Each structure stands twice: as C-alpha cells, then as structure tokens.
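This part of the workshop introduces the protein records we will be handling. The question running through the whole workshop is how a given chain folds. To make this concrete, we reproduce a full record directly below:
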Amino acid sequence: MTDTTIVHLLRHGEVHNPDGVLYGRLPGYRLSEDGVLMAKAAARWFEGRDVTALFSSPMQRALETAAPLAETFALPVTVDDRLIEADNHFEGLTFGVGAGSLRRPEHWRYLVNPFRPSWGEPYKGLAARMRSAVIRARDTARGHEAVCVSHQLPIWILRLHAEHRRLWHHPTRRECDLASVTSLTFEDTRLVEVAYAEPAAGLGTGPGVAGA
C-alpha cells in the first residue's frame, strides 16, 4: 500500500518591526498584534486535518506562530534549526538607497552576484537544508500530515527547488505571504503535488518582505 503524507510549510505571521530593518536571525523580534491573529487564523485553517507532527524554526516569531497549532492538536513543538531564516549580510540594517545601506560603498561588494546570492546564504545550500528538514517531517508523520513553521525565503527556495525552477529570483515575485501555507504531498517518498493557501489573507499590512 502507498502512504500519502503531507508536509505543510507555514510562514510565520506579521512581525513587530517599527524600524523596518532586515531582522533576519536577530533575537527579540516577536509577532505584532496582527501577527498573533494570523497565527490563530492559520491554526483554524488546519482544524480537522490529520496533523501528527509540528516543527518550527528556533526564531521567536516562528515559535509564536506555532503555539496556536500546538494547542489545537495537543502536540509538542520540535525545534529544527534547518528551518531557520536565511543568513544575510544586511541583517539589522535598512535596505535601499537614501538612508538605507545601499548608499554606503562598503556594502556594494555584497551585491555583485544575485545568482548565488553574494549577500547571504547560497540558494543551493538553503534548498538542501530545507529539503532535509522536510524529509524528517515527512518520515515522522508518515501516512499523516506535518507542519513546519519557517520563513519566506527558505520556504520559497524549497518550492522553487521542488518544482525544478531556477533558484534566483526577484523578492517581490515570491508567492509566500505572511502566515501562508505551502503544502507538499508525497506518495511514499515521491513528491506528487505542491499547493499554496493563504489562511490569513486580509490581515496585516502587507507581504512583509523585510526580515521575512
């Protein structure tokens, strides 16, 4: 018999970030009030599904997004460091011209290769670690469903990899909104479907690319 397993990649909710910095892996960035509502909306979306395993990035915003799911399904949250945000040279800075970091020449050398990318964690390495996290979740929840709470760029790169698309891209073209769900369906170990949903559509102020 064939086992059908679904691994859902849930992006965290909106973050309290009044200064608009690229917060990346910096500690202390919690969900905003709307972000908390998004996390609860995502948990409601999962109600009635066969979720038997819950994993999360170690970042505060991800763990806070996982909390309503843990309560809904009475599951522990297993922290998996492979689900963490991508490393980025511009972490802690505002990004852009004007008062942003792009105005300063010492940062320009990090922008020479958008295909790798030169400013942060290589896309291929990011795809590899996310794939290994998904395999762990798939094997843990075999025949059922698992949820992995992560971040925009890691989720999007994994999806591009799963769909055999090129990994380099423009950030504004990512289909991975706040508290969105990217679902990977497996028949045994074979990926057969990629789906996308937005349980928290209409909440918050926008896609929130900064920090992700």
